[in-house]
Amino acid sequence: MIKRDVVFPPGRQALYERNRYSPAIRSNGFLFVSGQVGSRPDGSPEPDLEAQVRLAFENLNAILGAAGCTFDDVIDVTVFIVDPQSSFETIWKVLPEYWGSAPYPTLTGIGVTWLYGFQFEIKVIARLPDTGEG
């Protein structure tokens, strides 16, 4: 059995352990990040959608940073959106603040009916920086 190389963002390990999943796993030069939502430090949802999207990206960036990555290292993105028809424009106006410049990562958007009280979730796969270790 392979031992999972888990990456925890600063200060949130207890939240992930309580919910029984890993925020991210390093494997074969890649970082697989679990879906990140706009949760406050106690795990509760940020009620304002625009603020929730920003907080989801901040939570994502904390994990990427803990692994030595930035959003520029992201190669694949999946977003889950509750009621995309009414929330898409609000969400998409926040993305440029975090997305960086072209070329952009691949993207899959999925409309869902429930996200445990959240309206937006983002999960990514990133390439780990080459450390020169060998």
TrEMBL record:
Signal peptide: none annotated. InterPro entries: RutC-like_sf, YjgF/YER057c/UK114, YjgH-like. This is RidA family protein. CDD domains: YjgH_like. It comes from Pseudaquabacterium terrae. Transmembrane segments: none annotated. Gene3D superfamilies: RutC-like (3.30.1330.40).
